Amino acid sequence: MVKHHQELIEIKGEHFNLFSILKIESRENKTHSAFISELLNPKGCHLQGSKFLELFFQVVDKEVSEENRLQELFSNSAKTQVFTEFGIGRRNDLEKKGGRVDIYLKNRNYTLCIENKIYAADQHTQIERYCNHNSGRNTVIYLTLKGDEPSKGSCGSLEAGKDFILLSYKKHIIEWLNLCLKEVPNIPSIRESINQYILLVKKLTHNLNMKQEQELRDTMARYLEEASFIAGNYDSMITDFKNKFRNDVKKALENHLDTNNYSLEKGSAVTANISQLWIIINSVDKEEFKFGIESFSGSGHNNGDMFIGLFDKVASPVLKDIPSENEKNQWWRFTRQLRTEDGNPINLHHIYTLKILARPESNEYQELLNRVVKTSLEFIERYEELLNASIIKKVEKVSS
Q1: Alpha carbons 345 and 182: distance in angstroms, whole number
Q2: Nearest Cα to 33, choosing from 67, 82, 97?
Q3: Could you tell me the pTM of the whole model?
Q4: What is the pLDDT of residues 229-272, one digit of tens each?
Q5: Do 113 and 249 sit in the same domain of this protein?
Q6: Helix (H, G, I), strand (E, B) or coil at 348
Q7: What is the pLDDT of residues 164-201, one digit of tens each?
Q8: Which uninterrupted H or E stretch holds 333?
């Protein structure tokens, strides 16, 4: 069945997809939020006014009560302003307010916050913070590939369908995009751009046509025991992939680093929200500061994208005068993102990364491993020099 599905894709030429070729298919903000917000924007370069925005409201309004219909709340849709990565105040998890909204719409006093999730994990109190914004005049949408609910840590006691709306790429976004296509049959550039994006969404959601999906379900129904076995073992298989990759990174770093100066320890399990590999500086108390690679779980800080940094939980005075490349948060004072050769972030939750991890004997796996190790060693070498200089200054101050 899968083979037949692939044959149909080849016949239609659907393997040729610009988003996939440019390797930007899973970038939430730079690809998905950017494309969707441009279509939603009445002043977008498509020059179709509020046509696409109204079609979006038409799809969303099927999921809400009559008094909460967006077509009514955004009645003068042409005046709607659309933003990406919009700040709604300083993030405060304790008071449950603030943050940066992926797609933000504003019309007079009414607002719409769209949290766009492709593979990234939820932030703590994220949906609660967005729901508390512009109280009484705000709608929150939680958009995922398949319509999943947010974690309890994100939404707290809030309920989907009551306090916020669940949307999926698999159903709602494809439905909306198909409606948009019907509006631009004679504008090739817009039509084909939307077509390409539909193909990308179908690829990410493993979308089949109705006949194919029914055939798949019928087959699974005939082999329920086998289907249950596959489903039950999928997560443990993914865990094994991630564990092996972390072990290989650890082994490779141990082969390059001087064991007199450094020792390596695994952090939280790869099934945890955040999973690390610690590079301990032997001459320093590891509770003061240490290098770390995060996250081997595919979730956590930076939407789960991997980075290496200097972890400083106690605000060590040794690090006070060292210039920062990039400040992550109060503990990760210095960080550098781990990227592929093409410049894409490395995230162990992404399907295309998992496909590489599934083939540890392949060149792609070795390239990914080498990239993580090489960037990590460069980072350690740079801060090793700065740390030595800072420690010398500290000694001089104490002596004087």
Answers
A1: 35
A2: 82
A3: 0.64
A4: 988 899 999 999 999 999 999 999 999 998 888 999 999 999 98
A5: no
A6: coil
A7: 999 999 999 999 999 999 999 999 999 999 989 998 89
A8: strand 332-337
